[in-house]
Amino acid sequence: MLHPAAINNGADGNEYDVAKMSGGIKLDVYDGSTCLETFLASVKNFATYYRWMARDELFHLKASLKGPAGQLLWDLGSDVSLDKLLELLRRRFGGADQEERFRMELRNRRRRPKEDLLSLYSDIRRLMSLAYPGPDPSNVKETVGRDAFFGCAG
After folding, report:
1. CA-wise closest residue to 16 among 30, 28, 32, 2
2. Which of 22, 55, 83, 89 is the most buried (most CB within 10 A)?
3. Is the dihedral of CA 36, 42, 44, 47 positive or negative?
4. What pLDDT digit, counting tens, does each position of 83-106 carry?
């Protein structure tokens, strides 16, 4: 018999075993130390694939929050909506309205001792996405990113 926590109801009302159907893939834990939007994209991917209702998505999101991010649950109480939790997560841990801060980090980024070029490149790409969100039809972001990489790789 399945443990009740391993069973979920899809949008069609049918029960399914989440662990079995996901092939052992689990939603990551989020503690506020990594990119929030990457984590939320993963949550949305699970929600879409498993056809979670907002209530299910809220449950799994809350269960994934640990450390400083989990502290939000204490601040909000038990009666929080998915939209309210997402808004607060983005305000506290997201890049919204923080583009200038990430531009400053990008300008001041230097290669750390023994840091390999792939790690440096990945971090610059992350900072570029946060500092200059959205599409860039003129490719100015690529130029800025390349200049940042060459400026701190040497």
Report:
1. 2
2. 89
3. negative
4. 999 999 988 888 666 788 888 989
